[in-house]
From TrEMBL, chain A:
CDD domains: TM_ABC_iron-siderophores_like
Keywords for this protein: Cell membrane, Membrane, Transmembrane, Transmembrane helix, Transport
Main location: membrane
UniProt name for this protein: Zinc ABC transporter permease
Gene3D superfamilies according to UniProt: ABC transporter involved in vitamin B12 uptake, BtuC (1.10.3470.10)
Membrane topology: Multi-pass membrane protein
Keyword Membrane attributed: yes
Pfam families referenced in this protein's UniProt entry, alphabetically: ABC-3
Membrane-spanning segments: 12-37, 49-66, 72-93, 105-126, 146-167, 236-254, 266-292
Automatic annotation (TrEMBL), chain B:
Record's protein name: Manganese ABC transporter ATP-binding protein
Any matching Pfam family: ABC_tran
GO molecular function: ATP binding
Database matches in SMART domains: AAA (SM00382)
Family according to the record: Belongs to the ABC transporter superfamily.
Keyword annotations from UniProtKB, A to Z: ATP-binding, Ion transport, Nucleotide-binding, Transport, Zinc, Zinc transport
Presence of the UniProt keyword Zinc in the record: yes
Domain called ABC transporter: residue spans: 22-254
Amino acid sequence: MLIDALLLQLGYNATLVAIGATLLGISAGVTGTFLFLRKRALVSDAISHATLPGVCLAFILMASFGGDGRNLIGLLLGSAVSASVGLWCLNWLTRNTRLAEDAAIGSVLSVFFGFGIVLLTVIQTLGVGRQAGLEGFLLGSTAGMLWTDAMVIAVGGAVTLLLIMLIRRPMTLVAFDPEYAAARGLPVSKIDMAMMGLVMAVTVVGLKIVGLILIVALLIIPPVAARFWTERSDYVVLLAGLMGGVSAYVGAALSASAPNLPTGPIIVLMSFALFLISLLFAPSRGVLAAILRHFRFQRRVHMRQGLLALAQGQPIYEKLTLRLLRKRGFVRADGVSTDKGKARAAKALRDEHRWAVVRSDQAHEAAAALYDGLRQIETVLTQDQIAEVDRQIGGPKEILA
Amino acid sequence: MLDLASSNGQVQQDQGLEDSPLTIRGLTVSYGQKPAVFSVDMTVEAGKMTAIIGPNGAGKSTMLKAALGIVSPVSGQVKVFGQPLDDKRARIAYVPQRASVDWDFPTGVIDVVLMGLYRELGLLGRLRGDHKAKAMDCLDRVGMGDFATRQIGQLSGGQQQRVFLARALAQGADLYLLDEPFAGVDAATEKAIISVLKSLREAGKTVVVVHHDLATVSDYFDNVFLINTRKVAEGTVAEAFTADTLQAAYGGRLATAQVDQLALALG
């Protein structure tokens, strides 16, 4: 069943949902990355919650003029208008009052959402139009998705991606160093506004599938997960798009493979799974890598200190140090150093002297920056450079008796 | 200590006062009700190194930011090479305080320098080999060539500062504005930066530096601009950097012994 779903064999509606969700996931991941890099990820939460009053007002308006209150394009337009109002309020609050952005986000988010819920309740008592299903915008509902709905999502997602391609350079520059960008004459606040506009577009487009409460997850989780794997912003963008797309596709397929599985929440859980994998297993930034690194570091410190102690004929009391030295055959069981240990210890001491020269010489700055008291000098200098350093020291020091 | 010969020697560049690289008239900037900079005039002399000096919170950085349009002034006028700022942006390079950015941003050293080529690259221009070569050259000039492929998160404070300077160099500007480039950097970095700045001056460029170390002012700079919200003094080091002007700018905040010492050093 799941295989069928993944291969788009579960019928027309499931296929539409899967394709629409994938496009949404890609554009949300890519758009969200710039928001994340600008450290304004939570603004998307305010934007998404601010869509609700617009959805409701658009419904009331369309229904009272005798139209179909559930026309998707009309509802999305309404949501875009009220999200813009919310965004404007947010910007006004942060710029013209002493309110910090987090407090402004909290205020805008809750007020707009509360107002939306009131309107939703009013609509249910009004009895105009076919109001059933409007609350589907809260958590998304894909059951009755139409061809036109999928097209709206596909076109919206594609246009968003295209625009991001166009302004990715200024957005990255503004995210890294807004003051420098302003000094170069970049319209920083306009670029920020464009970025928020794109976030709004993704939010509005995603209302149908994941709903306004959870869309923030698709905007934030993929970039955060992608950040674990790379140190380059352009790769974060690509990876976040990929992760967003994959989690949306798999999530949509999964929810189609069994009855009564909600699409939006499953997609969010899928992206959370990718986040968890990244958090734990990413090389260098991941949690496991950090723990491993710590243990390796600890052992290298003990080994290094042990060797230096051997070279200088000092006694060693640390159990871990002794164990490590014994394991490598540098000391005997009674703690007396072996010939191999003596040679290795002499080398360690000589390296210390070499490092001292390297670190005091500005010409070796790039190498010196890698000094951590542990690194073998051969990994940062060539044999010729080491020979030169040795000449400065005055030949290998005779330490051993 | 002041090199009079060179200060007369380089004025032959036919630049009248109206063509000064940077002129500021009646600049007032305020965060809230209290002005940070109040009605300040400044005329930067071309081809010279000028230090902006004043106590903490005197509006040094704010003045620089207002000159660059980063903060908008309450009133006042800024002219760059005799023209409005926006017409001459390409000729200014700015080096912000290094603490103003997050150094955990996912990017490499050379990528930061390439940001200096933003105007050449444009929105969609492809990054070519000669762009990279130019960025590498700028990194070499600040002694950071070996760091090109490293992550910015691995840099020390002094190295961060030199990367910022390399980014400004990449712009190939004529006027360089630096905000506290010597704050909290190692001696090697300070030497590297000052020698780059001096080479810019040799090449006829103009350098303006927000500076906090009074002891090095007469060694490093030709001109001094003393500010404490209002302008206190402006001119050559010999004219404007005296015990009296320092007392006026710093008030009681500078120990008298320190002033005497500086006055002694100034002769």
